[in-house]
Amino acid sequence: MTTAQDYRAISTDLFEQANIELEAGDLIQASEKFWGAAAHSLESIAEDRGWEHKSHAHSYRIIRNLANETDDKQLIYLFNAADSLHSNFYENWMQEDEIRHFATQVSQLIHRLANIDAA
C-alpha cells in the first residue's frame, strides 16, 4: 500500500527526473513526469485525508475541495497547467518554452500543496 509519505517521495523524484528529461530535450517524457509529480503530490494529501484518488475525476474533485478549503482558487489554475502537460504526453503539441512555463506552475502547485499537507 502506498502511503502519503511514499506519494510525496515519488512526487519529488518525478519532478527531478522531469527536469533531467527537459534538459535532455525529451519534451514528451518531461511533460508526463511533471504531471506525475503534481498528481502524486495531490495524492499524498488525499491519502492522508482518506479521500479517493484513483482517477482524473477524483483529482479534480480533490483540487476543487482544497481550493475551497484554503480559499486559494489559484490551485485549480496550477493544476490545469499540470493536466495540460499530461495531455502533451499523448499529443506532443507543446513547444519547449511552454513546457518550461508549465513546469514553473507545477513547482508552485507542489509547493502550495506541501503547505496544505503540513498544516
How would you portray this structure in words?
The protein has helices at residues 4-23, 27-49, 56-70, 74-91, 96-118. The protein is 83% helix and 0% strand. It starts with a helix and ends with a helix. The chain is built from 5 helices and no strands. With 119 residues, the protein is mostly helical. Helix 2 packs parallel to helix 5 (96-118) and helix 3 packs antiparallel against helix 4. The chain is globular.
Instruction: Determine the structural class based on helices, strands and strand pairing.
Output: mainly alpha
Number of contiguous helices:
5
- Oligomeric state as shown: single chain
Mean pLDDT metric: 96
Q: Note the gap between the termini.
A: 24 Å
Overall shape: globular
The overall strand count is 0
Please bin the fraction of helical residues.
Answer: over 70%
Cα-atom radius of gyration: 13 Å
Element-level helix/strand string: HHHHH
Strand proportion, as a percent range, falls in under 5%
Low-confidence region ranges: none
Largest sheet: none
